[in-house]
Design goal:
The chain is mainly α. The chain is 40% helix and 5% strand. The longest helix is centred in the middle third of the chain and has 14 residues. The two termini are 30 Å apart. It is an enzyme of class 2 (transferase). InterPro entries: P-loop_NTPase, Sulfotransferase_dom.
Length: 280
């Protein structure tokens, strides 16, 4: 099982829900390790960091091809993927503050300049075998793309969500939306349960919903990233679990930026039927 997303649409939230499902709602088991170790990332790795190809029941996020969408998984089965997406304006604001906090990322500088990068990113630098020196691993190629100072990591958000949306028509991909999860977390958790083929008692489902709420996860050191080395993240700049709201983009976008973004979004997403909501 893979949990996939571009950055900051609710990846940690869905990862925690999936882990709680696989652990049968056992809170003690879900506190065994930080979420980034329980649900490792396919496109990152290093000393002391598990590969997502190891024994974790879920992993994420990923691009469509890195999740094995064109191949077969274990026992000849096509991998099942839970994909989570969020309206692009809230993603832009959330990711801006994430990049300010996460020292792995280049300094996003001003909000104005970051927003332009976010809108104009086309897919990152050339991360192919030909584009980088021979012998580098896939993880390292992706890592090099991640650190490009002139682009937003993972390339175009428009391409990312459209690719997964189209893939969900032909492959076992469950598309979830952050706004729907905020509106009715129990309903969306039940969708995940059905998708992974798991049945849990109603009281266990309620427990999962309770302990994966923003308020609970924000005070849980296993999900709020406070276990990470301060050399890598600076929570004094911005907390990892910042606001968890739908429509908070309004507090950051200017009127001119909003109009500019709307025109750009309409052009880039003209052929896509994705039902994003900008507020609840």
């Amino acid at each position: 099982m893979t949990c996939s997303s571009a950055p900051t649409p609710g990846t940690t939230w869905v990862s925690e829900i999936l882990d709680m499902i696989y652990q049968g709602g056992d809170l003690e088991k879900c506190c065994r390790d930080p979420i980034y170790l329980r649900v490792p990332f396919l496109e990152s790795g290093g000393p002391g960091t598990p590969s997502a190809a190891q024994d974790a029941p879920a992993c994420g996020p990923a691009a469509p091809d890195s999740a094995g969408s064109e191949g077969e998984g274990e026992a000849g089965q096509v991998p099942r993927v839970v994909y989570v997406a969020r309206n692009a304006k809230d993603v832009a604001v959330s990711y801006y503050y994430f990049c300010k906090m996460a020292k792995l990322h280049p300094d996003p500088c001003t909000w104005d300049s970051f927003l332009e990068k976010f809108m104009d990113s086309k897919g990152g630098p050339d991360c192919s075998e030909e584009g980088l020196s021979e012998g580098r691993s896939a993880n390292l190629r992706l890592y090099c793309c991640l650190l490009s100072p002139s682009l937003v990591s993972y390339g175009s958000r428009y391409q990312h969500v459209q690719a997964w949306w189209e893939l969900s028509c032909t492959h076992p991909v469950l598309c979830l939306f952050y706004e729907d999860m905020k509106e009715d977390p129990k309903r969306e958790t039940e969708k995940i349960l059905e998708f992974v083929g798991c049945s849990l008692p109603a009281e266990t489902v309620d427990l999962i919903v309770q302990y994966t709420s923003f308020q609970e996860m924000r005070k849980n050191p296993m999900t709020d990233s406070t276990t990470l080395d301060p050399e890598h993240v600076d929570h004094t700049v911005s907390p990892f679990m910042r606001k968890g709201m739908v429509g908070d983009w309004k507090s950051t976008f200017t009127v001119a930026q909003n109009e500019h973004f709307d025109a750009h979004y309409a052009e880039k997403m003209a052929s896509c039927s994705l039902p994003f909501r900008w507020q609840l």
